[in-house]
Amino acid sequence: MLDHWQPVFLSRRLRRDPVGVVVANAPVALFRTASGQVAAISDVCPHRRLKLSAGKVVGDHIQCRYHGWTFDACGHGESPAAPKMTACTTSYDAREAHGLVWVKSRDSAPPFPAVEAPGFFPICTLEHSV
């Protein structure tokens, strides 16, 4: 499922705080960097397994609430107490389009879906919990 672009969240609802979503049974933490770019990484801190979406955004990183580990949009993490201690977590390609946040695995290369059609225009975006 994550080998293709998946719409996972409304762009307008992704603000300062990180958000957790589940896509194809994979927990994903969505967040905005300081520059406003969307990012998506695994919602499980590799240090103590706490949800990263329960943390906060610090600059271009998401910070785990438990011990303060920080992770960038590529999933590279660093310990606050021992900067030379690092960890990695799964990261996803993320982008905004059509009022939605879309994610896919970094290992796949599908084209982004073309949803524009001549003579048609979007009137709303529906949200469903599945």
Give a verbal description of the structure.
By secondary structure, the protein is mainly β. It is built from no helices and eleven strands. The strands form two sheets. It has a six-stranded antiparallel β-sheet with strand order 1-11-10-4-3-2, with no helix packed on it. The chain has a five-stranded antiparallel β-sheet with strand order 5-6-7-8-9, with no helix packed on it. The two termini are 15 Å apart.
Helix and strand sequence: EEEEEEEEEEE
Number of E-type strands: 11
Taken from the alpha-carbon principal axes, the silhouette is elongated
Q: For the terminal residues, how far apart are their CA atoms?
A: 15 Å
Largest sheet, in brief, is: 6 strands, antiparallel
Considering the chains and any ligands shown, give keywords for the structure.
six-stranded antiparallel sheet, 38% strand, mainly beta, single chain, 0% helix, elongated
Describe what is shown at a glance.
By secondary structure, the protein is mainly beta.
List the helices and strands and how they pair.
Blueprint: E1 6-10, E2 19-23, E3 26-32, E4 38-42, E5 56-58, E6 61-63, E7 70-71, E8 76-78, E9 86-88, E10 91-97, E11 100-105
Antiparallel strand pairs: 1-11, 2-3, 3-4, 4-10, 5-6, 6-7, 7-8, 8-9, 10-11
